Amino acid sequence: MTGEVVIFWVTAIFSVAGAVGMVISRKAVHSALWVAFTMINLAVLYFSLGGAFLGTTQIVVYTGAVMMLFLFVLMIVGVDSSDSLIETIKGQRIVGTIFAFAMGALLTSAITTTGFSAAAGVAGANEASGGNIEGLAQLIFGRYLLAFEVTSALLITAALGAMVLAHNERWTPRKTQAQLQRERTLAGHPTPMPSPGVLALHNSVDTPALLPDGSPSQESLPRIFKSVQHPDDSTNNEVTS
Amino acid sequence: MISALIGLPLFGAALLLLGGRRTNAWGHYFAVAMSSSAFIVGVTQFIALLGKPAEERSIDTTLFNWISVGEFHVPFGLHLDQLSMVFVLLITGVGSLIHVYSIGYMAHDENRRRFFGYLNLFVAAMLLLVLADNYLLLYVGWEGVGLASYLLISFYQHKPSAAVAGKKAFVVNRVGDVGLSVAIMLMFVTFKDVTFSGVTAHAQHASGHSLTLIGLALLLAACGKSAQFPLQSWLLDAMEGPTPVSALIHAATMVTAGVYLIVRAHAIFDLSETARTAVVVIGAITLLLGAFIGTAKDDIKKGLAGSTMSQIGYMILAAGLGPVGYVFAIFHLLTHGMFKAGLFLGAGSVMHGMEDDVNMRNYGALRGAMKITYISFGLGFLAIIGIPPFAGFWSKDEIIHAAFSQNLVVGLATLLGAGVTAFYMTRMMAMTFFGESRWKKGVHPHESPLVMTAPMIILAIGSVFGGLALKFLGDIELWLEPVVGVAAPKDPASNAVLIPVTLTVVLLGAGYGWLKYAKTPVPALAPENVSLLTRAARADVYGDALNEAVFMRPGQYLTRALVWFDSRAVDGLVGGLSATVGGLSARLRRTQNGLVRSYALTMVGGAVLIALVLLLVRL
Amino acid sequence: MNPNNYLVLAGILFTIGAFGVLVRRNAIIVFMSVEMMLNAANLAFVAASHITGTLDGQAAAFFVMVVAAAEVVVGLAIIVVIFRTRRSASIDEASLLKY
């Protein structure tokens, strides 16, 4: 019962649970959270296998950056969005299940019938290069230099690409402050709108601000929040914007 | 010099046919000039040959080396010896006379120039045929005369019957031509040589089988060109062409090319008993067939055509008898050329006077109205039935003599043929020139102009004196002996017996014809109630019906079946294939449903499959 | 301990990821399933490195991570753009490339 075995079994069970959770969650945000959970478990596993750098990178890059990116996009798309459980493509679910599990069965049988030599462990390799990071650095900047250069080019291109894709072209000139003030005055409320939560009893982001006469201003809510009824608000909320 | 013989008419043909309408005004005179100058060249060559001793009487020229492939060497060579010399004189002589005749006969035809172009072409091709020194070059001339015959038979392009007749002649000739090409191929295989000298020299070394095969193939060729049984059906239809054409091509010269071929290839026939027998049988059948057909024809030209078929049967029969008969075949060929051409020209003259009507039932009592025609036709008539001392007697009687010496049945056939010939020729004379006039209203028969009667007169002189000249003035047997060989008939039936018997048969036939057609009035419409034999004769002994039933209809069914097969099976297969592919593609297209998840499913499925295969292989 | 176990775990995670790709309809969840598959591959690499005793497997895993990050960036940008115009994140809606 070495530590390695224990860690393995624990992380294995949690990883699989997280993966299954991701697949069967109805809400997208729950899926994302399950994925993050699985990734952290994998990071632990990497640590136990002697890949300290890799484990750290997994948490920092994958869970920290990539999953956060996912969550931001989820926010844009709709946090509450959920899939209906009805399958529209005929036979997709059944055949998909069959294929996926056939794939799993094949992989498993392939792996279990292969006789691997006893695990050598990277401890020796780590020692030889003076540490895990140094060893990896020697490989990346040595033997795999070309891959490194190409990957960096790829990263730059990806960043540029994302910028170009998500760019929203401005079709009309930006309204100047004077113009905005003029519009506000003409519309009847010369002062700018209060930011959300001002003069409110609650300071959460989905609570509408109160106008000087005490009524909630739905315009102060970010677009993606529906109108929320709080129990101790005496006002009724109507989304009129 | 002998190449000029071919070159002059060929030049004439080229000039007239390529020159077009510009040559219309003087084209016919030019053609006559070309043909006549060829005749003059021929006469000079004849005199040159006479000056040489008998064994060396030949002039050879090789113009160029035509084909030289592997072992197959064929020179473009011309060979003028005694045999080709007589042919040259016949072709150019009779040809020139007919050219002159045509000036008058075709005077009202606007396509006259084209006619003369074709005539010159024919003369050139026929001369090439007889002057060639090898069988392949002979074949070229053979095809050339076939072409000229086709062009001239269907000369009246506006008449569908003429076009059909031309086609028929060409197609039936083609069957014979297959025989000639097979013969040439066999000659190459057997002798490695297709020149006359080569074949003659090596003939005795070849096996009997190959010689027989070559002989039979040559016989097939001769049957096609000379309208012998079983390829005789085209000759009567060929009378659709203008009368000078019938005279020149289908009486005097082209149809005799088959006889020339057999005599030229005598080396092969001498050595093959089977081939000779076949030739004799064919000749005998045809001479009787032609005579039989000729008895029931009311069309004057068709009657003469049947007569031609019969006379050539005599020639073929004589050629099949072997060395006893070669000379007489050629002798009869020459005399026949003269009197038959004269008879045809006379018929043309009669037609010209009777507004181009060919039906003898509308003639009658023309001897008063067309005196010159009557006399020349009459002299030709006497020659053909074999009355001494006219030309036909000398040649035909020799053939009958030779026939009897070989075989009694063959001899009897020739004798019977002579009798029937006398009958139908007398019928023709009687219906045309004697009896009551049965002319239609508005027809005023008149004599033809000098340009037409002059050649007729010259040919009539030939019919009278030709036989005597060739027998006694210049001995034709002696002339041709170095080339073909002459043999005396073994157990010869005595001429003393034979000649009176023949004359009796002839006079009987003539008398019967006279009684029936000169003494009794001839009905204006052909009687309907006739015997079976007459009906058969009128229908050319059902030759056409036979050809249609045996060859044409099955061929038609075959082609229709093939067309059906092609459109249903082959096209169906191809079309079906394309339809299948189309249908399949329409089904398969539906997998492109645009949904990413279906594509993902397919991808995963494919990956599973590959993994499975890899695993199985590994295990 | 049998090094096979790590690989079997990788296989299981891969399978679950594949299942998610095939069955879910939300584009972002599909994307996350793809990320799951990539992670499974990473695990396999690291396990292999552990078996052979060299660090090449870890280097490979590192590169996979980098590329996955780049891919996520571009992919999510595309999803955002599509969402802007079509107001829907269901991948079944983008089905114009059909026969």
Summarize the structure.
The complex is a heterotrimer of chains A (241), B (619) and C (99). Chain A has eight helices and two strands, in the order H-H-H-H-H-H-H-H-E-E. Chain A is an all-alpha fold and 241 residues long.
Description:
By secondary structure, chain A is mainly α. Chain A has helices spanning 3-24, 28-48, 52-77, 92-113, 123-129, 132-143, 145-166, 177-187; strands spanning 209-210, 216-217. Chain A has a two-stranded antiparallel ribbon with strand order 1-2. In chain A, helix 5 (123-129) crosses helix 6 (132-143). Helix content of chain B is 74%, strand content 4%. Helices cover 78% and strands 0% of the residues of chain C. Chain C contains 3 helices and no strands. Chain C has helices at residues 4-23, 27-52, 56-86. In chain C, helix 1 (4-23) packs antiparallel against helix 2 and helix 2 packs antiparallel against helix 3. The longest helix of chain C has 31 residues, at 56-86. Chain C is elongated. Chains A and B meet through helix 4 of A and helix 24 of B.
Show the helix and strand layout.
The complex is a heterotrimer of chains A (241), B (619) and C (99).
Chain A (H helix, E strand, L loop, with lengths): L2 H22 L3 H21 L3 H26 L14 H22 L9 H7 L2 H12 L1 H22 L10 H11 L21 E2 L5 E2 L24
Chain B lengths: L1 H18 L7 H24 L7 E12 L2 E10 H24 L6 H20 L3 H19 L6 H32 L4 H7 L5 H18 L7 H5 L5 H10 L4 H8 L1 H6 L1 H23 L4 H21 L5 H28 L17 H15 L5 H16 L1 H26 L16 H24 L2 H9 L10 H25 L12 H7 L4 H47 L6 H23 L1
Antiparallel strand pairs in B: 1-2
Chain C lengths: L3 H20 L3 H26 L3 H31 L13
| CA-based gyration radius of chain C | 17 Å
Strand order of the largest sheet of chain A: 1-2
Overall helicity of chain A: 55-70%
State the largest interface: A-C, 91 and 69 residues
Which structural class do you get from the secondary structure elements of chain A? mainly alpha
